[in-house]
Design a protein that fits this description.
The chain has nine helices and ten strands. By secondary structure, the protein is an alpha/beta fold. The longest helix is centred in the middle third of the chain and has 22 residues. InterPro entries: IolE/XylAMocC-like, Xyl_isomerase-like_sf, Xyl_isomerase-like_TIM-brl.
C-alpha cells in the first residue's frame, strides 16, 4: 500500500502547489478533489491545466485518484447538489455528466479510480425510491467507465442514502459491473458500523480500490487529526497488510485546510512509520 493525501485538505493551495508540497513531504499519491481551482472540467483553461497536472504527477512519480465530493462545484447555493438521487428535472443529468468528466480525467492521468458517493435522500422520497434512482443513475456512469477502463470506488458516507456496508451490499444486488468497486473510509466504518474496522476490511478487501483515513469518534462524523479520536491505527494497517492490500491510503482531513502544510506533515509522520513497520 502507499500513502496519499486528499487535496480537499489543501483547499487554499493551487493544485500544482499542493502536488509539489505533498511530493516534498514524501506522499506517493494524490487524491485530487475536482473543484473550482482543481481540474474543474467546466473551466475554459481545463485542457492546459490537465496537461500541466499530468506532467507534474510524472515528474514527482506520484499516483492519483479522482475524487468527486466538492461541496459547491455544481451548485453554488446547495452543498453536494445535485446528486445521483435527484430527479432528472432537479439536476441528476448534470451529476452524471460530471462523473463522466471525472472518468475522462482519470483515464488521462491513469488514476487508480474515480471515487464517488450516493448523496442525501431527497425529502419525500423513500429509501426504495432512492435505491432505484441510484442504480438507474449509476448504470450509464459504469458503462462509460468500463469503456474507458476506469474503476469506480463507491464510498459509503454518513447521512447519505448509502451510509453503511449493508446498504452498499444492497446496492450491489442492483448493479452488475466489474468496475463497481469500493472506497472504504476507515473513519466512517468506526463511526457507524457494528463490526470492527479489521473485520470490515477482511470481509470487503476484494472490492477495495481506495481507502480514506483519518481519526474519528464513534457516532460523530467529524474527520480528526490522528490521535484526536478513538481509532486503533496499528490494527487497521495490520488488517490491510493481512489481506495484501496494495492500493492507496489517502489521508482525508477536509476541515484542516487552514493548517494545510502542517496537517499534511503531521499525518505523514504518524502514518508512514506504521506502514513501514508492516512492509
Amino acid at each position: 500500500m502507499y500513502l496519499g493525501y486528499n487535496t480537499n485538505g489543501l483547499a487554499h493551495h493551487s493544485l500544482p502547489a499542493a502536488i509539489e508540497l505533498l511530493a516534498e513531504i514524501g506522499y506517493r499519491s494524490v487524491a485530487i478533489t475536482l473543484d473550482h481551482a482543481a481540474l474543474n472540467p467546466y473551466d475554459p483553461h481545463f485542457e492546459s491545466e490537465l496537461r500541466e497536472i499530468s506532467d507534474l504527477l510524472v515528474e514527482h512519480n506520484l499516483r492519483s485518484t479522482i475524487e468527486t465530493g466538492a461541496r459547491f462545484l455544481l451548485d453554488p447555493r446547495h452543498k453536494h447538489q445535485p446528486t445521483l438521487l435527484c430527479s432528472k428535472g432537479e439536476g441528476r443529468p448534470l451529476r452524471v455528466e460530471f462523473l463522466r468528466h471525472a472518468v475522462d480525467i482519470a483515464a488521462a492521468l491513469r488514476s487508480d479510480c474515480v471515487s464517488l458517493w450516493s448523496g442525501v435522500l431527497p425529502v419525500g422520497d423513500t429509501a426504495a425510491d432512492g435505491m432505484a434512482h441510484l442504480a438507474e443513475s449509476l448504470h450509464p456512469v459504469l458503462d462509460y467507465a468500463g469503456r474507458h477502463g476506469v474503476r469506480l470506488g463507491f464510498e459509503p458516507e454518513p447521512d447519505m442514502l448509502i451510509d453503511r456496508m449493508d446498504r452498499y451490499a444492497e446496492l450491489l444486488t442492483l448493479i452488475d459491473s466489474p468496475f463497481m468497486k469500493l472506497t472504504l473510509d476507515v473513519g466512517h466504518v468506526h463511526c457507524l458500523e457494528e463490526n470492527s474496522i479489521p473485520d470490515v476490511i477482511a470481509e470487503w478487501h476484494e472490492r477495495i480500490v481506495n481507502i480514506h483515513i483519518e481519526d474519528m469518534h464513534r457516532g460523530v462524523h467529524e474527520h480528526l487529526m490522528f490521535g484526536e479520536g478513538e481509532i486503533d491505527f496499528p490494527s487497521v494497517v495490520a488488517a490491510l497488510k493481512e489481506v495484501e492490500y496494495d492500493g492507496p491510503l489517502h489521508v482525508e482531513l477536509s476541515r484542516h485546510s487552514h493548517l494545510g502544510p502542517t496537517a499534511a506533515r503531521q499525518a505523514y509522520d504518524f502514518l508512514n512509520p506504521l506502514i513501514d513497520n508492516h512492509a
